[in-house]
């Protein structure tokens, strides 16, 4: 435990990570015009961070690249 909630950890890895790298205009959040690189999960990681392992689909560049 490093003192972050699961939501805070996810935000640090996505939105804040993109901001630190100066890439927030193209990635880090799900918005129109941004790159469509997504991991679809079967469980809510804000309830339990270990749910990040429950990968259902992976989308890279707007294309489905595979389940699990």
Fold and architecture overview:
The protein has helices at 6-13, 15-20; strands at 38-41, 55-60, 63-67. Strands 1-2-3 form a three-stranded antiparallel sheet, with no helix packed on it. The protein is an alpha+beta fold. It starts with 5 loop residues before the first helix and ends with a strand. Helices cover 21% and strands 22% of the residues. The model has no long low-confidence stretch (mean pLDDT 90). The longest helix is centred in the first third of the chain and has 8 residues, at 6-13. It has a single domain (6-67), classed as Roll (Urease, subunit C, domain 1), CATH 2.30.40. A hairpin with a 2-residue loop joins β2 (55-60) and β3.
Outline of the structure:
By secondary structure, this protein is α+β, with helices and mostly antiparallel strands.
């Amino acid at each position: 435990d490093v003192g972050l909630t699961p939501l805070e950890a996810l935000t640090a890895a996505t939105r804040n990570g993109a901001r630190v790298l100066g890439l927030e205009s193209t990635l880090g959040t799900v918005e129109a015009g941004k790159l469509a690189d997504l991991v679809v999960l079967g469980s809510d990681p804000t309830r339990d961070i270990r749910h990040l392992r429950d990968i259902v689909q992976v989308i890279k560049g707007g294309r489905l690249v595979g389940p699990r």
